[in-house]
């Protein structure tokens, strides 16, 4: 697994563009795996804590229980106004629960609704950015996976 910091060091331009998209809106969409294996999508807010992309959740929420049972997830940035002026971005990986002193520091700083709120950091397995080319004739897809660098695809 790769931390956000490692991803940003490996692909700084893509990391900056992805972070900008997540910072552009407060609410995003998280996909988790239900107990029966089907997908669950939930609204989520994200933040960066030190080197990590993090997700918070109310205690015992379905998404938190999903992540505790099966940490695989995908995070889709709010697509904005639909104009595609900025690229559409998605991040996939595994959520790792943050506990102990780091969790207590987060609770003291952020003051979530409950001290029992969950905090997860995301270890990345894939980042995808899909945008419209400057000349508006095709899509430009940038794909990053750990150790593979950024690959660019064009689709008409």
Automatic annotation (TrEMBL):
Q: Which domain of life is it from?
A: Bacteria
As one GO molecular function, the record gives: oxidoreductase activity, acting on the CH-CH group of donors
Q: Which Pfam families match?
A: PNPOx_N
Q: Which residues form the Pyridoxamine 5'-phosphate oxidase N-terminal domain?
A: 16-127
Amino-acid biosynthesis: present as a keyword of the record?
Answer: no
What keywords would UniProt list here? Oxidoreductase
Presence of keyword Oxidoreductase? yes
Q: Which GO terms describe its cellular component?
A: cytosol
What name does this protein carry?
Answer: Pyridoxamine 5'-phosphate oxidase
Please name the source species: Saccharopolyspora thermophila
């Amino acid at each position: 697994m790769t931390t956000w910091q490692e991803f940003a060091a490996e692909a700084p331009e893509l990391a900056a563009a992805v972070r900008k998209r997540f910072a552009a809106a407060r609410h995003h969409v998280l996909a988790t795996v239900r107990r029966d294996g089907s997908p669950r999508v939930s609204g989520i807010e994200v933040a960066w804590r030190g080197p990590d992309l993090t997700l918070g959740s109310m205690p015992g929420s379905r998404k938190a229980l999903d992540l505790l049972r099966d940490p695989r997830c995908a995070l889709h940035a709010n697509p904005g106004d639909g104009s595609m002026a900025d690229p559409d971005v998605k991040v996939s990986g595994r959520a790792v629960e943050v506990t102990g002193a780091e969790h207590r520091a987060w609770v003291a700083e952020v003051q979530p609704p409950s001290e029992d709120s969950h905090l997860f950091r995301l270890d990345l397995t894939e980042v995808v950015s899909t945008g419209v080319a400057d000349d508006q004739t095709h899509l430009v897809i940038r794909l990053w996976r750990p150790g593979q660098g950024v690959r660019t695809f064009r689709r008409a």
